[in-house]
Amino acid sequence: MLTAGVIAWGVHGTAQLGLTRCEDLIVQGNDESGQAALYRYRFGTAEFDESRFELHVGGLLVDIEQKPLQVLAILLARANQVVSRQELLDRVWEGRVTVENVLYNALAKLRKALRDDASEQIVTVPRMGYKFAGPVERIAVRLKLLSRLDFRIGTAVPGREHFHLYAQIGATRHCEVWVARHYKTHEQRVYKFGVDSELLASFKREVTVGRLLLESLPDRDDFVRIRDWNFETLPFYLESEYGGENLTVWAAKAGRLRAMPTAARLEMFLQIADAVAAAHSVGVLHKDIKPANVLVAPRGEQSWHVRVADFGSAWLLEPGRLQALGITQNWTSSPQPGFSQSASGTALYLAPELIAGQMPTVQSDVYALGLILYQMSIADLNRPMAPGWDKAITDELLREDIAAATDGEPALRLSGVADLTQRLRTLEERRLERAAAREAGTRLLAARQATDRTRARRPWVVVAMASLALGLTFSLWLYEGQRRARLEADGEKRRAAQINRFLSEDLLGATDPSGPGGAHNPTMRDVLAATQARLDARFADDPETKASIDAALGKAYFGMTDYTQAERFLRAAVEGFTRTRGPADAVTLEAQYSLISVFVQTNRLDEARTLLDAADRLAGARLGENSALAFKAHWTRAGLFKLRMAPDKALAQYQAADRVRAAIAPADDSMLLRLRDALSWCYARLNRNEEAARVLRDLLTPVYTPERVGPVFWAQARVDYATALKADGKSAEAERALAEALAEIRTSLGPTHFFVAVVQNELGDLYSREAQWSRAVESLLEAYSVLRLRSGEHGQATLIVAANLGIVELRTGQTLQAIDTLSRAHDDLVRQLGLKSPQAESTAFYLSRALSSSGRYREAGELMTPLVADDLEAAEPRGDWTQRLAALRGEILVGLGHKDEGLAKLSEAVKAMAALPTPDDDLPTFRKTLEAANRPGSRVTPK
Prior knowledge:
Blueprint: E1 2-4, H1 22-28, E2 35-43, E3 46-49, E4 54-57, E5 60-61, H2 66-77, E6 83-84, H3 85-92, H4 102-114, H5 116-119, E7 122-125, E8 129-132, E9 137-145, E10 156-157, E11 160-171, E12 175-182, E13 188-194, H6 197-216, E14 226-230, E15 236-241, E16 245-246, H7 247-252, H8 256-259, H9 262-281, E17 284-285, E18 294-299, E19 303-308, E20 315-316, H10 320-324, H11 352-355, H12 362-377, H13 396-405, H14 417-425, H15 427-437, H16 441-447, E21 460-462, H17 463-467, H18 470-490, H19 493-507, H20 524-538, H21 543-559, H22 563-581, H23 586-601, H24 605-619, H25 628-643, H26 647-664, H27 669-685, H28 689-697, H29 706-709, H30 711-727, H31 731-749, H32 754-769, H33 773-791, H34 796-812, H35 815-833, H36 838-853, H37 857-864, H38 869-875, H39 881-895, H40 899-914, H41 923-934
Antiparallel strand pairs: 2-3, 2-9, 3-4, 4-5, 6-8, 7-8, 10-11, 11-12, 12-13, 13-15, 14-15, 16-18, 17-20, 18-19
């Protein structure tokens, strides 16, 4: 499969959506929130993963109820300490009325599951409680919430002394969500506490919209009602009804959602949709519909009551309703009442037009509902809609309804929620009508259903997609240090004051929503756009300072993967510095190297090489010095070699850059990690896997935290470390490293960050190697979904993962589908990168393999002609490309009727492949071809 080594994934500061509300931050984890670790515990032959809530004994997953596992989690967290019986009852059964022996039964089940010696570690302490006795190994795997407001379970709610905090269910730096219980009646309420003005505005919006819904729709009980609030003293809070668990949590318990019949799941979805339709009927767009904002509580013994919660980002289509109802709008908004930044919300459920910055409409909420309908239909609330999503929906009418609700073009989407609910409520009648009219369509549709996805090898590495951007992070720091030194040396106080005004008034001022053109919670793009408008006027008489600002803006846009804008500003910076400082000045050349990296990132490699040679000539002997300029030169050239898949040449440049780093920034841990990561990539591409792991091993310690070196580069180091481990056959260690990387990126930067795709692509390869087919496909589909969102359907990275899926289809035996997928990917890659690019060559090999398997030998042979083993080895180091190419060429010759020549090649290649330490996956297929061709009287008909 295609891995991470030859495409720049654009890992620098990809623009994140503006998340303004407490729940958004809780779900996305895009805040420096107080969190504590979740652990994997090991004792005896058992292992308990607190993050997945899974118990393994003797390496096998134990099928056990959740309550015993909750008891185990508490005992392990306080190993060798006594936990009282009452505490266990309160925490596990949450104050519910229980029978006398409920705890005893849970412990009995737990001891039975643990078996042997491990069961004896759960000790009963007479008249006191229970404890887990003995040695326990604990490994941190994920994070859980902590309170930064110094709240504790049992503490009274400030100003509401009858309600005591019972359980914390969410937290960020500035917001916490708690469930509280009345100390007499045991009635439950939910409190959202906030400590800053932006959350206060969101709270006020939610109160206002809540009053509008209550007074306009008094008879509806499918919204969570707000009961009280405090906007006067810190901490601010909202007090709401307790609506039950959110849909994601509810669904995961005991597999509730998966256990429900499809009809029951659709009925539950209709409750959600009816509530949203009712809100729309009074002019309220929710704008952040997602499972976390849907609450589920029991209604009777066998049914569930669904409520829609959290209107903190709501949009009012008819603001005049507030005045008509006598409701005061108590939050400021821009540019119209009810406005909340269009792209706020949870990225996965945002309609494409919102991501593009357009105003929300009814169709925006329809899109989110369509995605939830898809997830509930397949009973998986974590799965994004990726290519092939329709294969999981067996009901063709339901497929059509989901597609109509999630069309990427708002004008083609269903006009309203009522249209969707009407379709779902008439499914049976529509099925009868469709059956009466159908003729041959059913067979055609059935033939298009995907079969199981299966194992595939990666033909190259996605690492370069991330690492090509690494050097640009350093440039601003290096330039700023030099600029400050120059300002101090020259005494340019006026210029310093001017820059300070630019930073405080223009740059920081652009974040002020009350200023001219201000927006609520502006995105980085908003800030940069506002900054550009003031740049020319501010520095009209100071071209050198303007050039320095142009350089900084260029690097910022590069970090957001907006290469058009990055090139524009970096060109302006180079031109400005050239006029004021000269073309050979170090600052001019540093800006030039940054511009060259844009060309590298956008695959204009010939242009990049020409400019790089020219810059190096101007730098001259300074490239041998220990300076920021020398570092930039070595790093930029290494990136070019890396994209050209020349790891030996890239290695020499990275080693030179590392020597400069050691001299000019020996204490910079972030730079150290990035250099060693780049070196590891080179070693891995040269089949020096032990060296690849060694240069990173000492840096993968708790000393180098994501906060210290940056989450993306922290994760990238683990990806490259895992690559080396996989090559050495250490799959379990590799999976742990990749899981850590994925968890950190999702927590720090959100589930749709570009680097999520990098890690998921690597996991897809790992799971394929381990024959975990469903997990491999899920990882690849998530990677594709993220890349399509970030780079578009024809983006280079998107094409790589699409080709990976084509390779999986080939391995499965879905040959015709594989040919279609690989052909489209190959054509696009050739157009973008050229016929001899590593990506195109690798895809060509697997496409040729598929064509040969289907008997299209002439086409396969034409594709094979330009392929060279050394080139493919550079793309995917494996040591057997000569044998693989020879075997495939032999198979093609046999198919074309050149039986003797083909058999000679195929026989020799099969023998050589069988002798390798790790035989190729296609070896059994080539053997079958060889055996069939050697049978007496066998004939081959060329196609």
